[in-house]
Structures are given as structure tokens and as C-alpha cells.
Amino acid sequence: MRLTRDSEDANDLLQDTLLKAFTNREKYTDGTNLKAWLYTIMKNTFITNYQRMVRKNTFIDTTDNLHYINSMESTTDNGAYSSFAMEDINGAIKALDKAYQVPFMMHFRGFKYHEIAAKLDIPIGTVKNRIHIARKELKSKLRMYSHLD
């Protein structure tokens, strides 16, 4: 468990260790500390399995010009999608009723609820309610972007 930190992996490691010890039993010499011999097999098996896993997850670019490695330096983002999204967001905000749009935009710009209430001369509960309704309406109108969460 100290090596793997997972009970299933620990059981697999123990099974691999005992199998290797059994198949290599002729290499064990009498008088040698059996526990130390088994632990050495276990530790080496763990290290080998770990290195194998790391190698398996390593990507090696075998193209002649190292296309995959070098391609990330020359990529650019297409700003069209974010431009369309911003147009949709701004349009949805402009379509809000002024009673909801004004407190929402003030809150968006960093005003606190009590500052908005004082500025618009309405109760703080009304400010919170209008911002909540504005968010709800915007969420409904911009549902097409919900996959970006």
C-alpha cells in the first residue's frame, strides 16, 4: 500500500511479486532474508510498471519535420466565435427591460447592492431581485452557450 496507495493496485503488485518470486525461486539462496528478497522484487516490479506507464503516456513525434511539436507555436485562435458570442451577450443585455438592465449592469461593473439601492433609490431587496431576474433571463436567452461552463 505504501508504494501504490491503492488497494487494487497493491493486490496486483503483490500477485506479480509472488509470481516472479515463484518463477525465480532457484535464485533464492538459503540463509537470505526472505522478506527483504520479496520486498526487493516488489519494489523493482513497481518501478518497472511505473516506468512502463510513463512511457506509454509519453507522446513521441515521429514526423520528419516534427510537425506535431512545432505546430503549437504557429497556431492562432479564431476570434470569430468569441466575437459572435459577445454580440449575442450584448444583444441579450440590451433586450432586458431597463428596470433589470440598469441594476444588473451596475452590479456587473462592481457596484455593491447597497450602492445600487442608494443610487437608484430603491430597496436593497428589490435590487437583488432585479439582478436575479436579469441573470435568469440572460441564462435563458443565452442557453446556446451553456456547453462552455
From TrEMBL:
Q: Does the keyword Transcription regulation apply?
A: yes
Q: Which GO terms describe its molecular function?
A: DNA binding; sigma factor activity
Biological processes per GO annotation: DNA-templated transcription initiation
Query: Which residues are in the RNA polymerase sigma-70 region domain?
Result: 2-52
Keyword line: Sigma factor, Transcription, Transcription regulation
Q: Where is the RNA polymerase sigma factor 70 region 4 type domain?
A: 89-138
Q: What is this protein called?
A: RNA polymerase sigma-70 factor (ECF subfamily)
Origin species, per record, is: Rhabdobacter roseus
